[in-house]
Amino acid sequence: xxxxxxxxxxxxxxxxxxxxxxxxxxxxxxxxxxxxxxxxxxxxxxxxxxxxxxxxxxxxxxxxxxxxxxxxxxxxxxxxxxxxxxxxxxxxxxxxxxxxxxxxxxxxxxxxxxxxxxxxxxxxxxxxxxxxxxxxxxxxxxxxxxxxxxxxxxxxxxxxxxxxxx
Length: 166
Hints:
Layout: H1 7-22, E1 25-28, H2 52-62, H3 68-79, H4 87-100, E2 102-107, E3 113-118, E4 131-135, E5 139-141, E6 144-146, E7 150-154, E8 157-162
Parallel strand pairs: 1-4
Antiparallel strand pairs: 2-3, 4-7, 5-6, 7-8
């Protein structure tokens, strides 16, 4: 009889390697019902893919000299859905914000205007980032739900997925 490896076994082995060899955390978001928000992801809406609490934590940690209000303003800019934009233009804009940081203006403790960039990913010291492998996360799209087998996150931002259509 042939030796059969299931898709579930491949998924678990991949996540195990990411955890053991590359320092990822893992989060299994499996729920039977696609609409169930009780999946441990902390999302308020199944259309959301970004893990906002983790992005906020990373922004605060990576930008200790930028006030919380300026960080919240930066997060609003990156979390904007950009529905009026063409997909390519929206992707380019978000890529620029992730690569270069999100421009913010604020007054420092001396009342002087400061222009800074809020970084969401530390490209210079990768060990400063938090890596997460998320499995079985239901996502609501225009034509129903889909559930990628594995999504790889950096600081709450989904950057890689292994797709599975349900």
